[in-house]
Design brief:
The chain is built from nine helices and ten strands. It is of the alpha/beta class and about 325 residues long. It has one domain: Glycoside hydrolase/deacetylase (TIM Barrel, Alpha-Beta Barrel). Strands 1, 2, 3, 8, 9 and 10 form a six-stranded parallel β-sheet that branches. Strands 4-5-7-6 form a four-stranded mixed β-sheet. β1, α1 and β2 form a beta-alpha-beta unit. α1 packs parallel to α8 and α4 runs parallel beside α5. The longest helix has 24 residues. It starts with 6 loop residues before the first strand and ends with a helix. Bound molecules: zinc ion. Zinc ion binds next to loops.
Length: about 325
């Protein structure tokens, strides 16, 4: 559907170690994850300064106050991936009991800060960082996971309206399930082969990785701005761009990265479309100040677009409600 004005949407995949447990060791990533405790409040402060609304898509585990709650809210049927490495439930014996003991698997204090702030949204990144296109898991298992995510949020007085699928694996059959349980929208993917997540092996292929890296700095896939479309009962607020963290190795290309995002935002503002930027809080764990500086540059650009083109910024839930008017 056509919009009356362009919109900036920002979503953060909020997951701590639950987002990388199958690809990294805790030891190798600890320092990034530890920084998330300072990154989230800083993000809120900077966003509030520029009236930017954030959507934190949180792994359900992070809404638990302790291990007992994780176990209590866990679904009876767990994802039966052919590759059992994808299941985080195998880690439950190893994690601490609460955030105080184990800040890599719990985020109670950060969830409280986001909730109390009230300007931003907490959505779902599924309960257990569920991979919707991996072999072995089923629609029933996904539904059980989704309900666990909705229920653990409910006990924190959070109503889940938005979902971001882990690794951006979108299974169209599951969109209907989400709609049946009150979810309004999801973050779709860019319409270009390099971002394809249907075949889960494609995303990690060297050719795709190189193209995505180049696309960060050079306009290969286009601006990926869009109007709102409804898919299987959910509004697709598709991704425009992953905000790649500052790279020491490619630091000379950083201005091009920011310029590319600014151009996409300007395009969305002029065409009355949506520009959806996303990343993970832990992506700012290294070069934190440089990443925040780049983000502020984008927020300043947003302010300019707001006054020039009436560009707006909304959480995913608020934006999807436009389609109901
Ligand atoms: Zn994730």
């Amino acid at each position: 559907m056509k919009l009356d004005q362009g919109h900036l949407v920002i979503s953060l995949d909020f997951e701590l170690f639950w987002g990388v447990f199958d690809v990294r060791s805790l030891e190798s990533y600890k320092s990034h994850l530890e920084k998330v405790t300072e990154i989230v409040p800083r993000l809120l402060k900077l966003s509030d300064k520029y009236n930017i609304k954030l959507t934190f898509a949180s792994v359900g585990f992070l809404l638990a106050k302790n291990k007992e709650e994780i176990i209590r809210f866990s679904p009876k049927i767990k994802p039966s991936y052919s590759n059992s490495n994808f299941s985080p439930y195998r880690l439950l014996n190893e994690i601490g009991n609460n955030q105080h003991e184990d800040p890599y698997h719990y985020a109670t204090s950060l969830v409280d800060i986001i909730k109390k702030n009230k300007n931003h949204e907490i959505g779902s990144h599924t309960f257990c960082h569920y991979y919707c296109n991996e072999i072995g898991q089923t629609a029933k298992e996904f539904e059980a996971d989704l309900l666990a995510s909705i229920n653990i949020a409910k006990q924190q007085d959070i109503t889940i309206k938005s979902i971001v699928f882990p690794r951006n694996q979108i299974n169209e059959t599951y969109l209907k399930i989400c709609a049946n349980h009150g979810i309004l929208n999801y973050r779709g993917i860019e319409k270009h082969w390099m971002y394809n997540t249907k075949d889960t092996k494609q995303l990690g292929k060297t050719k795709n990785r190189i193209y995505r890296l180049l696309d960060t700095y050079f306009n290969i896939s286009g601006h990926n701005t869009h109007e709102l479309e409804i898919h299987y009962g959910l509004v697709n607020i598709a991704s425009s761009r992953f905000l790649r963290p500052y790279s020491n190795f490619l630091s000379f290309l950083e201005p091009m990265k920011i310029q590319r995002i600014k151009r996409g935002m300007t395009y969305a503002a002029k065409k009355k479309q949506v520009y959806h930027l996303w990343w993970h809080p832990h992506n700012f764990g290294d070069n934190t100040d440089k990443n925040f500086k780049a983000l502020e540059t984008l927020f300043i650009h947003y302010s300019m677009l707001k006054s020039t083109y009436n560009f707006n910024c909304k959480t995913m839930a608020h934006l999807s409600k436009i389609t109901k008017n």
